[in-house]
Write a structure and sequence with these properties.
30% strand, 4-stranded antiparallel sheet, mainly beta, 39 strands, 3% helix
Length: 641
């Protein structure tokens, strides 16, 4: 096999042994995993492509999946093979140097929606790829793509099982991959955002057999810490609080960091009064046992759908003259929170600030929410008249009239029934699922963001009838398996969400002033911004002379020791860009066959450095209307031979 070298990635882990590190003697070549590796810093130590020669990049290969559609997959590269998904979630392996197909796995199920990366594990001569389709996770032989029958049932596990509720009525699938620690595969997953839906347990499975090894209840059960932050029976009927964005892993300390989303339902929480731990939290868990080490809750009793949108980044910074290991978490509302990785203590001060009460009957909003004093927000926080579009006088006048009818008072204003409330940055961020990049040499942290306004509100709806719980044993015999759950109280749906409404002008462009998308470099040693530039453009507006607007963007950056930040992500053009990582200057761009709404992979095979990215139609984002071509391709760039 062709070897890989020279970039940060996931080293081999062996059952019962300490995790290998890049410095371990005779360690195998590292893997470019999801997020670049378990630390989720999207950093490559490769230096072949630099600021001085990046302009020479050319297409090295293109792979057409033959399936047009949206894709958000970041390639995973190991032992000369590049692994990815097609738009319908077939798993494939390509020769990472040529793009030639080595194998394709078809489960017989047709997947749809986001599927952002496979998981790779190797021990000695054995290597497995874990791929997700619908509610199943398959273990595949990494060399052949064939399912491994000894894993789970016929080579797969079902994420609907082992939730303490009847599996046939549960929802569970992966949008982002989990992490692998020694002989454990640790998974979160996606569940529904309205009730009824499933709880968001974080679970660990045996990497060889698929047996469940531990579970952490993100909606605490009786006797567990945090149980008092919910109604007494919420553990039996509530759902969400799931770790859908992916996780980070400190392999040396054996700590997994799991970010979670909001509890269901997203926007009206009368049946989940309380702060709702562990929704909207970063949870540090003992990776071997699932025991909670510490947590931090970013939004209490979330009624704005402010999920944590991406895996945290495990970073090393300098504070007070000393080096410290920390963890950084970006948020949809445009902030970066930084904590001591071991203790959970904030690195920069966080203030408790008061916010308005809800006037919706039955709802009780949290009186305060945490706001970090540093770093300063990377997205705008309050929509006022001076931040409305000036693209044309007519568009500005229209936006001004609309704003007068909205409630626009900044963050954490509860949605109401009388008028639309401005959410800025919008429901899709701020930060999004693509993740962030961190340069360990400089302490700079790179985050791309949407900077658009959305609006939302509530409207009365008929209450949903109470639903019962099955599971009692027939004839009064002792139950087999999990204990039956008590009947749940009625799910309170007296009010429902009016829908995701992007604030666009009559011509379909954002009704706010540019920038509509940004890329920001933040010095996490100091908390200060190093630079911020617009990210993306509308080709038709560029033709009219309106440049540097930025655009909505989904997918993350990669930073390299060669001095570059590579990023696709943009909705409205088809460009892959390279920026000077120190200054933010654009040093290269290429128009691709389709939009690269995914995070690139940077890797080396046979002494040649590559940058590869998945291309797909703009079909996965809310309200994303575009005339971009539909495609399901992967493209790789490299310097001429």
């Amino acid at each position: 096999m062709v070897g890989l070298s020279g970039f940060f990635g996931h080293a081999e882990t062996r059952q019962g042994a300490a995790p290998a590190t890049p410095a371990t003697a005779n360690a195998p070549a590292p893997v470019w995993g999801y997020g670049g590796g378990p630390q989720q810093i999207r950093y490559s130590a490769l230096t072949q492509i630099t600021k001085t020669n990046v302009s020479q990049l050319q297409v090295a290969w293109t792979y057409d999946t033959g399936e047009p559609g949206a894709m958000q997959t970041q390639p995973v590269v190991a032992d000369g093979l590049l692994y990815g998904y097609t738009p319908t979630h077939k798993t494939f392996a390509l020769d990472a140097a040529s793009g030639e197909v080595r194998w394709t796995f078809e489960s017989g199920l047709r997947g749809s929606g986001p599927n952002r990366g496979v998981m790779y594990w190797r021990s000695g001569q054995e290597a497995r790829v874990f791929s997700a389709v619908a509610n199943f996770v398959y273990a595949l032989d990494a060399a052949t793509g064939k399912p491994i029958p000894s894993f789970g049932t016929d080579g797969r596990i079902d994420l609907r099982e082992n939730l303490g509720r009847p599996s046939e009525s549960q929802i569970g699938r992966l949008t982002s991959p989990g992490v692998i620690y020694r002989d454990l595969i640790i998974l979160g997953g996606r569940v529904g955002e309205g009730l009824p839906t499933s709880p968001g347990d974080v679970r660990a499975y045996d990497v060889r057999t698929g047996a469940l090894r531990w579970s952490f209840h993100t909606i605490p059960h009786p006797g567990e810490a945090g149980y008092e932050t919910w109604p007494k029976e919420a553990w039996t009927y509530s759902g969400g609080a799931n770790s859908w964005p992916g996780m980070a892993l400190d392999e040396v300390r054996g700590i997994v960091f799991a970010p979670t989303g909001s509890a269901a339902s997203d926007f009206y929480g009368a049946d989940r009064l309380g702060t709702n731990l562990y929704a909207n939290c970063l949870i540090a868990l003992d990776a071997a046992t699932g025991r909670r080490l510490w947590h931090y809750q970013f939004v209490r009793h979330d009624i704005w759908d402010r999920d944590l949108p991406s895996p945290p980044s495990l970073i090393t910074i300098r504070r007070g003259g000393r080096t410290m290991d920390a963890v950084a978490q970006s948020t949809k509302h445009g902030f970066v929170f930084v904590f001591d990785r071991v203790t959970g203590e904030p690195v920069f001060p966080i203030e408790e600030r008061p916010f308005p009460k809800s006037d919706v009957p039955g709802e009780v909003a949290s009186a305060t929410q945490p706001i970090p004093t540093l770093p300063k927000p990377f997205a705008r926080q309050l929509l006022t008249a001076d931040l409305l579009t000036n693209r044309t006088p007519e568009a500005h006048a229209w936006a001004l009239e609309q704003l007068k009818a909205f409630r626009s008072e900044g963050q954490f204003v509860p949605l109401g029934v009388d008028k639309q409330t401005v959410v800025f940055p919008g429901f899709d961020g701020g930060a999004e699922w693509g993740g962030q990049a961190f340069d360990p040499a400089t302490g700079l942290y790179y985050v791309n963001a949407n900077d658009l306004a959305w609006t939302g509100g509530l409207q009365p709806a008929a209450a949903v009838a109470a639903r019962g719980r099955g599971g009692a044993a027939v004839g009064g015999a002792p139950p087999v398996g999990p204990m039956p759950l008590p009947p749940s109280p009625p799910i309170n749906n007296d009010y429902r969400f009016t829908g995701y409404r992007k604030f666009l002008d009559p011509d379909g462009y954002p009704a706010t002033a540019p920038p509509w998308g940004t890329l920001t470099a933040i010095d996490l040693n100091t908390g200060e911004h190093a630079w911020q530039v617009p990210l993306g453009e509308y080709p038709e507006l560029v033709a009219q002379g309106l440049k540097n607007t930025g655009s909505e963007n989904y997918g993350g950056p990669v930073v390299t020791a060669g001095g570059l930040v590579f990023i696709g992500a943009t909705n409205n053009d088809r460009k892959l860009r390279a920026f000077d990582k120190a200054t933010g200057a654009l040093v290269w761009e290429a128009v691709m066959p389709g939009p690269g709404r995914a995070t690139p992979a940077v890797y080396e095979v046979g002494g040649r450095q590559y940058v590869a990215i998945a291309l797909g139609s703009v079909g996965g984002g809310r309200g994303a209307a575009s005339t971009q071509p539909t495609t399901g391709k992967y493209i790789a760039f490299a310097l001429p031979r």
